[in-house]
Write a structure and sequence with these properties.
about 475 residues, Uridine Diphospho-n-acetylenolpyruvylglucosamine Reductase, domain 2, Uridine Diphospho-n-acetylenolpyruvylglucosamine Reductase, domain 3, Alpha-Beta Plaits, five-stranded antiparallel beta sheet, about 35% helix, binds flavin-adenine dinucleotide, binds D-malate, binds zinc ion
Length: about 475
């Protein structure tokens, strides 16, 4: 083993190697504190060639590789196993923005660049990189692409998969595939790029990417609305597409329980509306059409005000506030983005990251809330999320004051009740967080034999030695 560590040191140098137990610890646990693994070492290569050399060494020594970016994943995909013979390969030193091509609307980056850095660099060039999520200050683009992350602007721009043109990948054979092509059109056989996207590091290591950019919006309107119920939320969204002239960028639904947790755990936060309501929608419209002084054309805020006025008259919307400036818009967004962190502080929870078609959301919500309560009447459901994508974080908090051990026996029956219902509605048991190690059994249970066999065949073909993030997504 000393020899293996010595060879690793020879490839990445002292700076790229962590072997001390205390220093390794943050890389061996996940954001939710669900897992604690072990690793022979945490390796932090500085270049693609070093990644390839590390993988080559791991093949020779039969050591498995667990790729890791910002370690904000929800499914334990970047955490090594407790009893494995594995290294964690962190991309956090590969954090260079290589090129911004403002004319061609692309940016080429290394995999370890933090998402917020990419957004900021695009903005400096009057461009937009639209992937946006609460973990953007610490997650990496490599992790985003490997989980096919969603976030709050999928409605307009798509998932991470739709935001990328080309990739560079180190294969499980330790070879470098240079697919860094900035091409919108490329029908040259099987799409290898799409195989690696969303593969959670089980098929190879993404080392670089060519990302797509968009024009930066110039006119943005943000509203915090209280809606009658989830049916009102989807009806409001449905009309908003036309009313905004197809400029809806976000539509996030929240139940009062989630707002209460945010207000409790974030002392500076305030409720924008005077009365308490059961359901809220954060609606954002944005357009690249700039408004100049003296411009008589109606801006998005005026259009939104007119639309919400009609929605109040018809009873869909109970109350609403439109942000008057950027600070107010940011405060609305903070109420939404602090949901995850606040729930972590509140206590143990189950995350059901589900999707059904948008029109089925209301029925699913009613039946799903009843199903959770039937299993554990004192549980505290916190449904919230990307209603415009049909993706609800149908989370379930433990009853107040319960610890993990007390809640643990109830997790499986609650999740089974929720997932059975999701499948009955033709939905997915993981809309954006992936499978990792947490949902391997659920995937095996809810997907068909044909799908699972095909996934295992792909894994065996690309990684016959099962050294690339083994035991994640599918077991072979
Ligand atoms: P990690 O957690 O390090 O890794 C995730 C997976 O990708 C692992 O399986 C890992 O092995 C693999 N991986 C990482 N880097 C590479 C690479 N370079 N090559 C190959 N495999 C790799 N997710 C959403 O989709 N939408 C949200 O709205 C959202 N909100 C969040 C809010 C909070 C507060 C938090 C903590 C998380 C949220 N997430 C969300 C989940 C998480 O942020 C995303 O999954 C993110 O894309 C993970 O990026 P990361 O760099 O942290 O990846
Ligand atoms: C989010 O959208 O904020 C995260 O994906 C959700 C979660 O905490 O489950
Ligand atoms: Zn989400």
């Amino acid at each position: 083993m000393t020899d293996f560590i010595g060879k690793l040191r020879g490839i990445v140098g002292e700076r790229g190697l962590i072997t001390e137990e205390d220093a390794k610890h943050p890389y061996l646990t996940d954001w939710r504190d669900n897992y604690l693994g072990t690793a022979l070492a945490v390796v932090r290569p500085g270049t693609t060639e070093e990644v390839a050399a590390v993988v080559g060494l791991c093949i020779d020594d039969k050591v498995a590789v667990v790729p890791q970016g910002g370690n904000t994943g929800m499914m334990g995909g970047g955490t090594p196993h407790r009893d494995g013979r594995e290294i964690v390969l962190s991309l956090n030193r590969m954090n260079r923005v290589i090129e911004v091509d403002a004319i061609g609307y692309t940016m080429t980056v290394e995999a370890g660049v933090i998402l917020k850095t990419i957004q900021d660099r695009a903005a400096e060039h009057d461009r937009l990189f639209p992937l946006s999520l609460a973990a953007e200050g610490s997650c990496t683009i490599g992790g985003n692409l490997s989980t096919n992350a969603g976030g709050v602007q999928v409605l307009q721009y798509g998932n991470a998969r739709q935001l990328v043109l080309g990739l560079e990948v180190v294969t499980p054979q330790g070879e470098i595939w240079n697919g860094l092509r900035a091409l919108k059109k490329d029908n040259t056989g099987y799409d290898l790029r799409d195989l690696y996207l969303g593969a959670e590091g089980t098929l190879g290591i993404i080392t670089k990417a060519v990302l797509k950019l968009w024009p930066k919006p110039k006119d943005v309107a943000t509203a915090w609305t209280a809606v009658r119920d989830p049916q009102a939320a989807v009806t409001l969204l449905s009309g908003a597409h036309a009313a905004s002239e197809d400029n809806v960028t976000s539509c996030e639904l929240m139940a009062r329980q989630g707002i209460d947790f945010v207000l409790k755990h974030n002392p500076g936060a305030t409720d924008p509306l005077t009365e308490r309501h059961d359901w809220y929608v954060l609606l954002e419209w944005s357009s690249t059409r700039s408004r100049r002084a003296g411009d008589n054309a109606t801006g998005l805020a005026e259009k939104m005000e007119a639309y919400l006025g009609e929605a109040m008259e018809s009873g869909l919307v109970v109350d609403a506030a439109i942000a008057q400036n950027e600070a107010q818009a940011r405060a609305f967004w903070a109420l939404r983005e602090n949901h995850t962190e606040s729930q972590k502080r509140e206590g143990p929870s189950i995350k059901h990251d589900i999707s059904v078609s948008v029109s089925k959301i209301p029925a699913f919500m009613t039946e799903g809330l009843q199903a959770m309560k039937r299993v554990l009447p004192e549980c505290r459901p916190v449904p919230f999320g990307h209603v415009g994508d049909g993706n609800i974080h149908f989370n379930c908090m433990a009853p107040a004051g319960w610890d993990r051990a007390r809640f643990a026996p109830h997790i499986e029956p609650i999740s089974a009740a929720v997932y059975d219902l999701v499948v009955a509605h033709g939905g997915s048991i993981s809309a954006e967080h992936g499978i990792g190690q947490l949902k391997v059994d659920e995937l095996a249970h809810y997907r068909s034999r044909v799908e699972l066999d095909t996934m295992r065949a792909i894994k065996r073909a690309l990684d016959p030695q099962n050294l690339m993030n083994p035991g994640k997504i599918v077991r072979i």
